[in-house]
Design a protein that fits this description.
Structural class: alpha+beta
CATH architecture: Orthogonal Bundle
Largest sheet: 2 strands, antiparallel
Distance between the termini: 36 Å
CATH superfamily: Winged helix-like DNA-binding domain superfamily/Winged helix DNA-binding domain
CATH topology: Arc Repressor Mutant, subunit A
Helix content: 40-55%
Number of helices: 6
Number of strands: 2
Shape: globular
Radius of gyration: 13 Å
CATH class: Mainly Alpha
Order of helices and strands: HHHEEHHH
Strand order of the largest sheet: 1-2
Number of domains: 1
């Protein structure tokens, strides 16, 4: 049995770490980009269908007040992107997601 909707499990902590890191380095965070980082840095076995799971996690984190949608970007040739950032409440949980930041510090 999985965690109840709205709980903060490892995937949500990884998403929060990605948002934190990308904000620090000046990268825009959006669902598809977060999904790619999950695959590349955390070696998560996320299929193309698994992308929708990232959006579920983003919605849960938004509902919990840990992240917020800050804008919608239009990039030529791609679907519109919802841009996400950590809230102050989300940043306060850095001690919980800090262990995932090391995976993001490594250069390609």
């Amino acid at each position: 049995m999985g965690k109840p909707r709205g709980s903060i499990g490892e995937t949500k902590l990884k998403v929060m770490a990605i948002l934190h890191h990308e904000e620090r380095v000046g990268v825009t965070s959006y669902g598809y980009g977060i999904w790619k980082v999950m695959k590349e840095r955390y070696h998560s076995c996320l299929s193309e269908d698994g992308l929708r799971n990232i959006y579920h996690h983003l919605e849960d984190l938004n509902d919990l007040g840990l992240i917020r949608k800050v804008s919608i970007q239009s990039v030529k040739g791609t679907p519109r992107r919802r841009v996400y950032r950590l809230t102050e409440k989300g940043r306060d949980l850095q001690n919980k997601f800090a262990r995932y930041l090391d995976y993001l510090q490594v250069s390609n």
